[in-house]
User: Fold this.
Amino acid sequence: MATLQSPGVSVTVIDESIYAPSGSGTVPLIVTATRQNKLNEQGELASGTLPEQGDSLTLVTSRNDLVSRFGKPQFKVNNGTVIHGDETNEYGLHAAWRVLNQTNQAYILNANIDLEQLEPMINEPTKPVASGTHWFDISRSNFGLFMYNTTTSAWEEAEVDIINSMESVQQVNGVAQPKDTIGVNGDFAAVTVQTPMVVYEKVGGTWIMLGAEPVPAVTSSSLHIPAFQHVVLMVLVP
Assistant:
């Protein structure tokens, strides 16, 4: 207690604060999103950015460990100026970098997305090719209508007239076919005034739809049909 030298007021402050003992430190969890298949400073693939590591929890113990696993944080830059707020900026990774300046542990949960896919492209994006799609080498392929010559045992390309005018067709059972006054026997014509397109051959002065001719019975196991004088294909012949 203070000793007064003259009349006055004596004030005593007693500190009765109670403090809880400090517990073990909390390890932060940081959710990030980065470009996939990044390179670290050693020029190696950053393991944490591999697609198969997406949505996996990783414990890092230092800044060096962080950039080795996930590469350096990348930000969109235009003429030397960082574009803040760009959706491709790796803010989560930068937050982890800052945290590891104060602590020696952090959990990183890197989302299974590729920020590189958010970059604009000059070429129009396309969806994946449908299953079962076939690719042909058009530089070594022939397209059109071919007739098999049983004498030479070879496919021969046939000329096809395109009929795209209603004045040149007649309706037969609701199907447009060339008028009989057009062409000569042996000619081929494709009628395009209706869908699907139909191809005809002129036989005996009449246009006959390909595939509509009577098919002789097949008795040979080798499928050799001597009765055929020609067979017509509407497919690609490599």
Summary: The longest helix spans residues 91-99. The chain has two domains: 29-117, 138-211+225-233. The radius of gyration is 40 Å.
